[in-house]
Amino acid sequence: MKTLFTICICTIILGCSGKNNSDKTPKNVDQIDNDSILKNEISKTTNIDKSINSVVYLTSTYDNPAFPEILKSQKEALKRLSERKVFDVIASKVMETLIRKHHAYFTTKLDYELLAATTGDLFQEDKDDAAFIVYDKMNKRISFLIYNEMKNKYFELFREIKVENGLENANCSYSVFGTLDYQLAAELVNQEEYLLKNPESYLESSPFKIVDISKDDDFVLKSGCFSNKVSKDKLSNSLCIATSAVYNNWECLKYDKATNTLLIFYGQAFAD
Q: Does the pLDDT at position 17 exceed 90?
């Protein structure tokens, strides 16, 4: 009886052991390949989703290594304008228009030659913010500075305040080469001969302003290009920069409090 009981127990143990071993049998090759393919597809989908949802901020054309010869030529022309005192004449006139604290700031910034200034509620805090165009003598480039009245601090576009191009996928025919700092510098270079003779002519029209573009005659909204990331009912507090000295061309940016960035939301490129 004991022998029969022992045999039964051993049979049960061996049966369970065989079942466990069969459970651990590897998947066949086809199944492994299918699982790998599925994982790869899931990974691809995840990466695409990240790409779609991520925001790509602009790098200034001046910091783009793809255009060395173009940048070299432009920088040489800007340097000539500075050395021939064109920017110095413009700066002396613009400095006269500044309030005391901004005047004091640029007096200490010996590498900056001030080319334009504007004020307005750019940061949407009901404050008197400001924006400036400068020639940076050390780096031989045009730069934009914006002043946040609430924080009492100056920031440089592209480097310290990120800029998103909302017109890139706006489904309209608007297209330009280069970031705004490069575009404005290109216009200065195009006017080099004329500015050498008459530097103050640069001040005859404002190259930029903080406005409600729905209430400003410079903007022909029905013919311009709008980003799909901004409501056409909220067009105030816009920093607008003229990109041509001949045509009524502009790009406008709007501050986003949530991300502390600026969005290029409107572009206008056509003759008057």
A: no
Stretch 145-152: mean pLDDT: 98
Question: Taking the chain, what is the end-to-end CA distance rounded to the nearest angstrom?
Answer: 111
Decide the pairing of beta strands 225-226 and 208-211: unpaired
Compute the distance between CA of residue 238 and CA of residue 23 in angstroms, rounded to an integer.
67
Residue count of the chain: 272
Q: How many CB atoms lie within 10 A of CB 198?
A: 12
The answer to whether the beta carbons of residues 188 and 142 sit under 8 Å apart is: yes
For residue 218, which of 250, 254, 183 has the smallest C-alpha distance?
250
CA distances for 194 relative to 44, 71, 88, 188, 267, angstroms: 55, 21, 16, 10, 27
H or E element, residue 11: helix 2-23
Is residue 203 scored above 80 in pLDDT? yes
pLDDT surpasses 80 at 29: no
Please report which helix (H) or strand (E) contains residue 18, including its range.
Answer: helix 2-23
Q: Where are the beta strands (DSSP E) in the chain?
A: 112-120, 129-136, 141-148, 153-156, 163-165, 208-211, 225-226, 238-242, 250-256, 261-268
Residue 133: both structure tokens together = 């165009």
Q: Is 38 a residue whose pLDDT tops 60?
A: no
pLDDT tens-digit readout, 50-93: 333 478 899 999 998 888 999 999 999 999 999 999 999 999 99
Q: How would DSSP label each residue in 101-126? A: HHHHHHHH-TTEEEEEEEEE-TTSSS
> Could you tell me the pTM of the whole model?
0.78
3-state helix, strand, coil in the chain (%, to 5): 40, 20, 35
